[in-house]
Amino acid sequence: MDITSLTAVELGKKIKAKELSVADAVKASLDQIDRVEKDVHSFVTIDREGAFRRADEVQKQIDSGSLDGPLAGVPVAVKDNMCTKGMLTTCSSKILENFKPTYTAEAVRNLEKAGAVIIGKTNMDEFAMGSTTETSYYGVTRNPWNLDHVPGGSSGGSCAAVAAEECPYSLGSDTGGSIRQPSSFCGVVGIKPTYGTVSRYGLIAYGSSLDQIGPIAKDVTDCAAVLTVIASHDPKDSTSIDRKRYDFTSALVNDVTGMRIGIPKDYFTEGLDAEVKEKILAAVRVLEERGAVVEEFDLSLVQYAIPAYYVIASAEASSNLSRFDGVKYGFRTEDYEGLHNMYKKTRSEGFGAEVKRRIILGSFVLSSGYYDAYYLKALRTKALIKQAFDKAFARYDVIAAPASPTTALELGHSLSDPMKMYLGDIYTVSVNLAGLPGISIPVGTDSKGLPIGMQLIGDCFEENKIIRAAYTLEQTRTYERPAFVKHLEEMEGGR
């Protein structure tokens, strides 16, 4: 049996049926990491000892009947910006290279309560600032579909780990598309929930009004199951919302009869790759054939989303990252004269170029004389974008759009031109500005064999609608494994 090709829910069922032990599942993931990690580099930290120790604990709980959820005993990888007690949490930055938190993020705790086994922490763009996972202090992550291409970002390590079958599912965070875009690039499924659905407690903040934790997996069923577990009301997070119902698996229904799907015309204009456009519209036609009502409309304000997002996100980043000063924890420069010089040298040496760029931009837009001109204007634009979506959702259940203008770019292609990297987020940032849920689902590959993802956007607290639409579409397709993974398997003569 090839354990690593199973979905999280399939693996959970086999563990429950005693066809496999938890230790078997953990060993399979760690063996696959040993096979592919030198090429892909999805992980910053791998906790072998801790994973096996945890596997024994969980196995006892399963055997005693105290754990019987769908994810009990299933290994998971966690993005390295979520605190894990006693395990390195670096945000892929030099400034946190030795940081071991004294507590665990609420979303991760919820997973642990459900019997998950954390096998390690995944690579990311430093402090989640980037769209390629190339800004990491620990080196780049490569796309398992083509090792010369990026996996996307900032949750590139989490998406690459799932695609390379190093783990059945993972957790990522999404501030402006950081789950949906790399999911699209890596041919996996990723959900960014409604803002406030998953606790941000223990998530090291980038943009506090935009950040949201979400699941990444091979299929929609896994994502719905994981979201059901990690979503909760948390009094420790002032933005957490008590939704009363957190059952996202009930939306796994193969039926979109009468569902109204809107196609924003302004998302399908100049700048969108022709192959990406073709595959997404073909996927929409499939949903239409299954009973959905499809209509084009003008969303408007698309051109204002990028500037508004980068002003707000950078402003919040400059504030959030002021805590990393070399005094309380993390990296401190060795050679300095006086306190002011220590701050300056620590932050200069500890942060990478992209993080510094955004801190400087954020400090500028918050400074006296520019606050009104930039930051307040961006906040007003954010409110207008939310209004435009409200108007759209008065008519439609779901909006279908690209997750990215292109498929995965070649390594080194974006870093030389930050503006190009920022514009790559054009279809995702509006969802964060409006606090909406979004899912990315694979809809095929381009002529280069790289995955194409379609983004489905729902109204606030309407995750079940996008899950239902994504699930229905998924039933018409089979999951495609990356060529790199299949090639490895062939080389080894199967496992």
If you had to describe this structure to a student in words, what would you say it looks like?
The radius of gyration is 21 Å and the shape is globular. It has helices at about 10-15, 20-40, 50-65, 105-115, 155-165, 180-185, 220-230, 275-290, 300-320, 340-350, 355-365, 370-395, 420-425, 430-435, 465-475, 485-490; strands at about 45, 75-80, 115-120, 170-175, 190, 210-215, 260-265, 295, 400, 440-445, 450-460. The longest helix is centred in the last third of the chain and has 23 residues, at about 370-395. Helix 2 runs antiparallel to helix 3 (about 50-65), helix 9 (about 300-320) packs across helix 11 and helix 9 (about 300-320) crosses helix 12 (about 370-395). About 40% of the residues lie in helices and about 15% in strands. By secondary structure, it is of the alpha/beta class.
Write the layout of secondary structure elements.
Layout: H1 8-16, H2 22-40, E1 43-46, H3 48-64, E2 75-79, H4 106-113, E3 117-122, H5 156-163, E4 169-174, H6 180-186, E5 189-192, E6 212-217, H7 220-230, E7 260-264, H8 274-289, E8 293-297, H9 302-320, H10 338-350, H11 353-366, H12 371-393, E9 398-402, H13 418-423, H14 429-433, E10 438-445, E11 451-458, H15 463-474, H16 483-491
Parallel strand pairs: 2-3, 2-4, 7-8, 7-9
Antiparallel strand pairs: 1-3, 4-6, 5-6, 5-10, 9-11, 10-11
